[in-house]
Amino acid sequence: MKKILIKISLILGLSLSSIAQSAPIKSIEILGLNAISRGTVLSYLPVEAGDDYNKKTSAQIIRALYKTHFFKDIEVSQADQVLKIKLQENPHIKYVELLNYSDKVIEEEAINQVLKSMDLSQGKIFNKRQLDKLISQIESSYISKGYYGIKITKTIEIDDQNRVGIELDIFEGEVARISSMKISGSEVHDEDDLLDLFEIGEADFFLLNYFTEKDHYSKVALDAGVEAMKSLYINSGYLDFKVNKIATDLSEDKQNISIDIQVNEGSEYKVGDIKFSGDLLNQSIDDLNDLLTITEGEVFKRKKVIESIQAVTDLFADQGYAFAKVTAVTKEDYEAHIIDLDFNTSLSKKVYINRITIAGNTRTQDEVIRREIGIAEGGLYSNTELDESIKKIRRLGFFSDVQMEVTRLKEFDDKINLNFSVEETKTGTFSIGLSHSNSSGAAFNVGIKENNFLGTGNTLNASFSNSEAVQEM
Known about the structure:
The protein contains twelve helices and 21 strands. It is an alpha/beta fold. It folds into six domains: 21-89, Ubiquitin-like (UB roll) (Roll), CATH 3.10.20; 92-171, Ubiquitin-like (UB roll), CATH 3.10.20; 178-264, Ubiquitin-like (UB roll) (Roll); 270-346, Roll (Ubiquitin-like (UB roll)), CATH 3.10.20.310; 352-424, membrane protein fhac (Ubiquitin-like (UB roll), Roll); 428-472, no CATH class. The strands form seven sheets. The protein has a four-stranded antiparallel sheet with strand order 18-19-20-21, with no helix packed on it. Strands 2-5-4 form a three-stranded mixed sheet, covered by helices on one side. A three-stranded mixed sheet has the order 6-8-7, with no helix packed on it. A hairpin with a 3-residue loop joins strand 20 and strand 21 (469-472). The longest helix is centred in the N-terminal third of the chain and has 20 residues, at 2-21. The radius of gyration is 37 Å and the shape is extended. The chain starts with a helix and ends with a strand.
């Protein structure tokens, strides 16, 4: 019995001790704020007024505020149920200046956007790690464009108001020039033809290279050329084509670079069986086959597959199936080097035109544009008809740009809105001249021609001379 009483006393003692170490927070006092608002600090705190405070709470607060990188010193205490947080802010940025910088490699606007996205602009809290990250990104961008001698020196000054001035002194150096560029392993296509796919390469003769800068190394241009080479091979039926290695060798002075590209062409693939599946309506297989630009037995070309997909899609889109989806499912025989094709079609519902809107026509009347649109509100969607409508509007000659956007209605899955947007262009001409003849002497001439008179689509021709006036509409 005595042992039981002792255990109960110990448990009660521990509980009372725990309660004694916790106390509710009546209010929160924040000291040392300058550039950062009280509300910002409160939003990061893991506690609020009314919560209990203990030693663990203090550690949680310090950890949460340090994670923001806003502060370099944090003190937390509690007295008379008031939580006191004393802060020392990291300095905020007064300015960021780029020295000895030219925008011939990277546009200044692009750097300014990066500065803003990384919170390294005026008024933001200074974060040294972010600055180092920025410098690393800028250097990487220069190197990718062939400027291997890039060097950025940072200078950081803090004034008596805890503001930081940042200067980045950028030494760009000279771009590395391509001393040699080779492609090995190609048999189907001539090496010179492959090299022509690249915007960069060995210098032609000096004068031409001065204007084209062809021998200026750029990793972006190198990668783009490699992708163009891959597309060429795939569109030639060489689906297994791959680039085994791209070796670049930079000279010790970082002024010259040689490029060696090693490729494996693989085998040529041909088209095997072609079939159609899915929602075909009443279309015959023969009619569908007639739409294809690719046929059985010929060399497999991705471009022709894409064209065939578009042709089948247009067939159903012209019957009102605006959101018809056609997918070419391939089945490869890697031993026989044959690819079977299955054009699978999913149609969904027929779609009707709900509304047609026109925007951007500041001079031209709506009706002038609407009469060129071959589909009316309430009519069935037709892809070909809409393409032709856009061409007709462009042929009017009143607009520098014509665009059309399809908007689906949330409440109806079988209705859409067509939104045409145009950009007006000048449609009138004015001429003035002086002529002379033996019979009538000198004559003063003025001519005006307007192809879109008052926005009606009508043409106005008017001319005047000191002997007669002519007007035609």
